[in-house]
Write a structure and sequence with these properties.
By secondary structure, the protein is mainly α. It has a single domain, classed as Orthogonal Bundle (434 Repressor (Amino-terminal Domain)). The chain has 5 helices and no strands. Helix 2 crosses helix 3. The longest helix is centred in the N-terminal third of the chain and has 15 residues. The radius of gyration is 12 Å and the shape is globular.
């Protein structure tokens, strides 16, 4: 079964990695592919892939704001550490 468009590779364990994990979680909750999110949000597909792999240089908050608006969440939700499941 396909992984609904998740980029390959490890997500780094840092601030951008935390954002990547949250974006992946939100995208999967919406049952969307990376391509669907990019198209519907107006964010370039390559940029969305870089966001989900933690390889996007987040120099401004505008991209985070755009992703948060797409998922209808507060931008701070994208930067929070994921809660560990027991």
């Amino acid at each position: 079964m396909p992984d609904r468009g998740r980029p390959r590779g490890e997500v780094p364990d840092n601030f951008t990695g935390r954002i990547a994990e949250n974006i992946i979680r939100l995208r999967q909750q919406c049952n969307l592919t990376v391509a669907e999110c990019a198209e519907q949000s107006g964010i370039a597909l390559a940029s969305w892939y870089r966001l989900e792999t933690g390889r996007h240089a987040l120099t401004t908050g505008s991209l985070i704001d755009q992703v948060a608006e797409f998922f209808e969440v507060d931008p701070n939700e994208l930067t929070r550490k994921a809660k560990k499941s027991r």
